[in-house]
Amino acid sequence: MKQQAPKGTQDLLPEVTLNWQYVERTFEDLCKLYGYEEIRIPTFEHSEVFQRGVGETTDVVQKEMYTFEDKGGRSLTLRPEGTAGVVRAYVENGMGSKTSPQRLFYVITAFRYENVQKGRYREFHQMGVEAFGAKGPHIDAEVLAMLDHYFEELGLKDYALHINSIGCPNCRAQYREALLAYLRPKKDQLCQDCQNRMEENPLRVLDCKEKSCQDVTKDAPLILDYLDEECKDHFDTLKGLLDDMGISYKVDPRIVRGLDYYTKTVFEFVSENVGTQGTICGGGRYDGLVEALGGPSTPGIGFAMGEERLLMELEAQGLVKPHSLETTLYIANLNDAAHTEAQALAQALRRRGISVQYDLMDRSLRAQMKYAGKNNMDYILVLGEDELARGKVMLRSLVDRDKEEVEVGLHDIDTLAEILAED
RNA sequence: GUGGGAUUAGCACAGUUGGUUAGCGCGCCAGAUUGUGGCUCUGGAGGUCGUCGGUUCGAAUCCGAUAUCCCACCCCA
């Protein structure tokens, strides 16, 4: 029976992996520019890490986790995101006693049991950063500047940065009461989902897309009016810093974020083209998370970017440029002796960093030429009786038809490598 | 978890009111007087029509279930 990949997973074939390498390398290079170092964390954690880290009341934890029991009776969960695991690692390895701030980046797969749609899979890829130890708004601004820089590097257009502050637990508690006081009398006008989640997490009612709920919340009190002095300062300073750097943004008081750990600054980069899966990057500050996972009180901020969505967007904008590969040479070998010689020649050239292929299928010269053409080889070199007898080969460009063939000694590896390395 | 649409060769698709050996294009392989690609021409390989079950003399076609994909809700990256 033919096997299928599980629902929500996908194979990434050679036609597209170059694009993935492109966005990931660009990201990694940029991370290094901003002082971030890579961390690699386990694919699964004790379920508790996510229950406590992401938040018991969140949809992610309540209905989207791949949780299983291992043979030792432990409850484990495939990571539904990166932050909780990175924070766990930060705490477990005592990284707080290294120099602060600690800046970490990661490129991971993550897993959520959700219904599949375009730009949404059960196994998906995220690139993200986490910065620990800095509590002021400058790091917030820097993180946003870094993302701005990244998108500029990729040439991405038609996206918007939305920011908000959801305050610290203190202002949030007060705001929560105010919001509940506003919502309770209007409860029967809300959709069923919102009625259910109202008491548990009333902030989420704010970004409900149901028209009736939006009507109800249109005049609801805004969190921004309930920030205490410190949180308000933080947010105002951040906005000023963004203005100074010329980074445009929109304050969107309805951004709430479905993960419990966020405090103060939250943000999203939203595509203006793509439909419902338009959020290509989301993040924010999480000043209580390190402590919640058993570490010392430590502020933190980070973001995660959905690679599938980013690539969708880049593709829609015609921006995925294939990596320019190094020069490639094809050796057409026409008989057994030539095959042996081709192999030796290929190895010698590969040792000098030239990408070389030769015939392994005993094909005719004509067929070999076709193969070289279809596989975008830059140069070809025919190896047959004549060449072996004379000890010389003709090096011809397949890219530039006008380029003259060059005769080179068969064993003159240095000259061959030199010519090939020129392009 | 809920609702709608789809599933025929590696890819993109035809397939008449159920009726012989299920087709086209691209791709793949081979050849076009025996050593020079991308064009053209010729030939070839490749499908238990997603899967299982039912109706029927007969099912790619009708019915049911299931899997997967797409779209929307929900949620998020």
- Helix-strand makeup class: alpha+beta
Our count of helices gives: 15
Strand segment tally: 16
Oligomer: single chain
Give the % helix.
Answer: 25-40%
Radius of gyration: 28 Å
What name goes with the CATH superfamily of the largest domain? Bira Bifunctional Protein, Domain 2
What is the annotated CATH architecture of the largest domain? 2-Layer Sandwich
Largest sheet: 8 strands, mixed
Number of domains in the coordinates? 2
Mean pLDDT: 91
How many angstroms does the end-to-end distance come to? Answer: 48 Å
Q: Strand order, main sheet: write it out.
A: 1-5-6-11-10-9-7-8
Shape: elongated
**CATH topology annotation of the largest domain:** BirA Bifunctional Protein, domain 2
Q: CATH first level of the largest domain: which class?
A: Alpha Beta
Beta-strand fraction estimate = 15-25%
Poorly predicted tracts of residues: none
Structure description:
The protein has 423 residues and is α+β, with helices and mostly antiparallel strands. It folds into two domains: 14-168 and 228-316, Bira Bifunctional Protein, Domain 2 (BirA Bifunctional Protein, domain 2, 2-Layer Sandwich); 328-421, Rossmann fold (3-Layer(aba) Sandwich). 38% of the residues lie in helices and 21% in strands. The protein contains 15 helices and 16 strands. A hairpin with a 5-residue loop joins β3 (66-69) and β4 (75-78). The chain starts with 13 loop residues before the first helix and ends with a helix. The mean pLDDT is 91. It binds one RNA strand of 77 nucleotides through α3, β6, β10, β11 and α11.
